[in-house]
């Protein structure tokens, strides 16, 4: 057990090597606000890489749990590296002021309105000017602050792409306004809610109405998940909810696993190569995360194409390979494999010859290409 704790500690240190503090002078708040900043370990060593940003209200106590989960997920390449910004609200009166709303309109009011503007008009521009960020922004909060982050959804153009709400104490009319907004949304959004079975009835009833209304709205652009954690309290459920929320948002980022393979890929009749291309396009276009197509994912799709005898799709696989690994032999190998399976050994031999002059990758090397060339030349002579 000590080894497990040591591993987690090393992961946390290695993946989030830079944790620092900053004070932002805010005109909106009329004072300074302290924030905690977590930069991935690769931030300095990879000066061209950009990162999604996770903004945490209640950053005083949510920063470390999120950091630990992201460190663990990044270590196994299940979650992307990202920048974490924790907003300090450690004084009870400060937290109360930040989330002040008008009970009649159900909207941010006075100091709550000022804090709303601070996050959108000051904090985000400050972070994006100072650090290398992608356009993909996530925001999270707990109870009162979990409700507050929903106000950013009310904007005509929401400034966050993903919302994580732990046991939100919903503001008046929120269970109606959010689904109405979701029904009209034209850009993808991720939305996560969790509650504990130990949460009180007064808190849970509006959330249940919200859940029902979101399901009625049924907009496919809203990637929605609602969790109820048994045997948990208002506070302990957060530790269960953090990984559930992160893996919901970044499902497309993960390498192909058995669940994705069985439920989304095997059931396809065709378009296996298109599925692979789209999987990585989502990361790039929606999240701004540039990830080379993993060889493990590439081989999964290649094997499925061969199993289904969809040999023409190997041409598409060659295109994907040439974009991702232009100097490697993978693309030419895929074309050689396609011609081989289509009983055209002469053209297959030529592609394998081209591949032999390029850089090895994965389990592909010059010896294998020479072996393939000999096989194809032998077959070509037999078919004359």
Automatic annotation (TrEMBL):
Keyword Nucleus: no
Keywords from the UniProt entry: Hydrolase, Signal
A Pfam family annotated for this UniProt entry: Esterase
SUPFAM superfamilies tied to this protein: alpha/beta-Hydrolases
Annotated signal peptide: 1-17
Gene3D superfamilies the record matches: alpha/beta hydrolase, Tetratricopeptide repeat domain
Transmembrane domains' residue ranges: none
GO molecular function terms listed in the Swiss-Prot or TrEMBL record: hydrolase activity
The protein's name in its UniProt record: Alpha/beta hydrolase
